[in-house]
Amino acid sequence: MSPGKTDALQTHAIHLGGLLGNLQSLEILLRFFLSNQPGARPRGVPYGIDIFESPVGTLLPVSDITSYDTLGQLIDKFNAYASSTCSPTLDRSLVDIRDALAHGRISAKVPSEKLRLVKYARPDNGQVRVLFNVEMSESWLIDQKRRVYDAMQIVSTHMPP
Q1: SS3 helix, strand, coil % of the chain, rounded to 5?
Q2: Is 79 in contact with 89 (CB distance < 8 Å)?
Q3: Residue 148 neighbours by CB distance under 10 Å
Q4: What is the pTM of this model?
Q5: Mean pLDDT on 127-136
Q6: Phi-psi region of 159 (alpha: psi -120 to 50; beta: other; left: phi over 0)
């Protein structure tokens, strides 16, 4: 592989990692936000228990932090709050990017730094529908990182001090 391609793939990996990190940060911010809202699920975790240090197999109560809610459900809950307070809402299409990264395929037609992200729907009658298809260029990755970061800032403005 030529040095130029190696550099491009390293840049791709750095931006992809940044995008994934931002998506995970957005999700935990949403969970913390929702756990502080009136009507939140009981936190239920006894004082002194660090849920992030719990060994595999530990049973914890369901809370807004530990729930199985998807990113889409978390965004919908935040947007319901934001709409009721005339605050900016989050762009739900961020879920499409997260889902494509989690369930899509990343590849190139030929060995190249021009990688594509493609996601397909569940098969129906022997066919699949393309749900997501984008070239993961450096500018696309940077734009998506910025979009997720902007969403994180919106949530952060509603967090208690």
Answers
A1: 50, 10, 40
A2: yes
A3: 25
A4: 0.87
A5: 96
A6: beta
**Amino acid at residue number 11:** T
CB atoms within 10 A of CB 48: 5
**Coil, strand or helix at 149:** helix
Domain boundaries in the chain?
3-156
Distances (CA, A) of 109 to 94, 102, 116, 142, 148: 26, 21, 9, 23, 28
As a whole number, the mean pLDDT across the chain is: 89
What are the tokens at 10? 């390293």
Dump pLDDT digits (tens) for 108-122: 877 666 889 999 999
**Residues 6 or more apart in contact with residue 134 via CB below 8 angstroms:** 100, 116, 117, 140
User: How confident is residue 1, by pLDDT bands cut at 50, 70 and 90?
Assistant: very low
d(CA 78, CA 94): 14
Which residue in the block uniquely carries the two structure tokens 């395929």? 105
Structure tokens at 8: 């491009």
More confident residue, 26 or 61: 26
